[in-house]
């Protein structure tokens, strides 16, 4: 990889927003609502608070160990063998998640727009686009995210404004839905919803300045939290609690509610264009970061040729679940629960080892 270090905080902000912000349009809301009912809009806040301290601690360590990315930091603190092993666990967990997430994305495209097309064909076309986009390199991906961001967010803002007339505020009650204990437990277990923050640290030294990474990542993190919570709140107040847990794709159902008069029909097509653009960029960023991590673990400096086989394996993983219900309520739900402790604990482990060795005092 030839890193020119031309990206700034604005590009990092855009990539964080594209990578994590798309969760407001996928099946994450439905997954949250399965147990918490109408209180699911509170759960992203809990998940974010669970993962934020570990992410801030990781940024602190990266700042102390200057000129190191995620994998280099792991090896510097834990040693080559243990560092690579932990890095491989991070890679595997995230690779499985992208496979399941991509299956959910494909199910949306198929059911909403191409119901007669086989999943495999749509999956193959998606990954071809993702592969070709990822081949352009990190700088191009960053600039593309920055250029696309205003169009995507303006379309989302238009939807938010148009849907306000359908909001019924009383539907947020009871505030804690099926119970405070369930909301807290599920919110904590689903902290890995924001695991992409950690993956981005593989690019810590690839921006113009490391300060640009921290500024862009943190501003992006809080922005996507606000965006996700806001739209989950809108879903709660537009759909009643009996239906919210049965709706597979609330974002697209939301577009069915908006109207601009009798002369503007099928307005959901307008939002589909920008949703597809953001979806492509999300998976382009995701597969590139994972390939980068894989290359760093196995000391492969020119890792771009690995984009094609890893994209193909993503397709294979995504086709394992029998259907979208099994994919979401069994595989993805279970994987998110098991992965959360990994992302919460490993920065604390790194900090503890570095502190015990006295490395933090030397920096």
TrEMBL record:
Transmembrane annotation, as ranges: 39-61, 73-100, 112-135, 147-169, 175-203, 215-235, 270-294, 306-326, 338-356
Protein name: Uncharacterized protein
Lineage: Bacteria, Bacillati, Bacillota, Bacilli, Bacillales
GO terms for cellular component: membrane
Membrane topology: Multi-pass membrane protein
Compartmental location: Membrane
InterPro entries: Spore_GerAB (IPR004761)
BP GO terms, sorted: spore germination
Keywords associated with the record: Germination, Membrane, Transmembrane, Transmembrane helix, Transport
Pfam families (UniProt xref): Spore_permease
Family: Belongs to the amino acid-polyamine-organocation (APC) superfamily. Spore germination protein (SGP) (TC 2.A.3.9) family.
